[in-house]
């Protein structure tokens, strides 16, 4: 039935609109769901949504699209993009959640790996690995309701990345169906050009149908720690010394409001663990409107010396003594820590509101200036959600991967994860988008070395600027692996060629 519907679309010819009401009645709920994303700002109806069961199905859809001179194909992971990256206006959306098989395999050298369909959620992989095999991947995202194929098309970053690399640096093998409808199994040693192109490749070179992800013994427990700073200079000095020494298993952090009237973004957003209280009297006089919280974790087993290790590692840090919090949780609980925030956001309506998020990777040499020139003056009242700021190391990223990074070895992720209520309770989304634009303008006019993470631009010159010296390589790979620009049209990098 799907193929017949597709054929009907193919016969419509150039410029024809897809009929979103195939039965002549209500809008098809599957099409409607595939016409929007978590960002809630971009919207475009596809012609059809298919649920591929295999790489051959994916290749079949791409072949069908290539028979027309206008149809495009977008893989949709869990639709958690924020600017329409997984949309296919009038084209074919492949619901990759249909490819959700997980299997334990061993490499030739005996390394255990999870062989996973691209539509598996990281949370599903965690549950399966820990519960069934006592093993887990070692690089994560904060939120686990994202697909393996979706984050591998971007990077996949969290507090482990400074040490173990992003998720795209933790893949042993991929199965990819290119825009030429060729199924390729690739790895660092076989068809490495496509392997590295697809990692962070924004879906431009092929659809990842399967990924092989190395597994390691899962730690039993995690000591989860938060410490508070009043000055960005001390915060970044400590954060950078911790990522350099590599003793912690996880280093992240965020800015929060130096106020008590906002439970989601103020003092009360920091304490972890039942009964722990934020003693605001400890904040030094003259502190600014924002404070900073370094979030750390030590993986450990029962009956080891974690208390002593924690004490030794925290001793030299310059945080405000007395404003430290710690909690013992299981590994799964730690990695699932964002679930509570998701439930709260669903309950108060901010999960379903638009999310014009802004993620910037910015050189360590600019981060203090960014705080003084951008964060403090522009965002002193917060954004209704987390403002993550934490360092990463360029040497953990393979330069053959497609993702664009700042030039310096140490750079920060600044993630402005807006969670405001829908208008008119919250601000109009246009105001938030124009604030993002203003932030980027300031970054440019101040000459910061930065790149957008989860980038979204509307014109090719902007994309060329984003990829910089690697743009020619990106264009060349596109010509080889998706010469008619059938794939991932929602990224707005290339136009469908006849
Ligand atoms: P989608 O949004 O569906 O797709 C993203 C892009 O990849 C699209 O262009 C799509 O066509 C393409 N694509 C999807 N699947 C495939 C595939 N199999 N093969 C080829 N191309 C494909 N990111 C982090 O790095 N760290 C975080 O901690 C983090 N936390 C997040 C928390 C929330 C609540 C949200 C909404 C997002 C978060 N992200 C984070 C961003 C996330 O990595 C991106 O949204 C990413 O796109 C994954 O989402 P998805 O699986 O829903 O993919």
From TrEMBL:
InterPro entries the UniProt entry points to: Cytok_DH_C_sf, Cytokinin_DH_FAD/cytokin-bd, FAD-bd_PCMH, FAD-bd_PCMH-like_sf, FAD-bd_PCMH_sub1, FAD-bd_PCMH_sub2, FAD-linked_Oxase-like_C, FAD-linked_Oxidoreductases_BP
Q: Which GO annotations describe the biological process of this protein?
A: cytokinin metabolic process
Q: Where is the signal peptide?
A: none
Q: Which cofactor does it need?
A: FAD
- FAD-binding PCMH-type domain segment(s): 42-218
Q: Cite the entry's keywords alphabetically.
A: FAD, Flavoprotein, Oxidoreductase
EC number, as in UniProt: 1.5.99.12
- Which family is this sequence assigned to? Belongs to the oxygen-dependent FAD-linked oxidoreductase family.
- What is the official name of this protein in its record? cytokinin dehydrogenase
Q: Which organism is it from?
A: Dioscorea zingiberensis
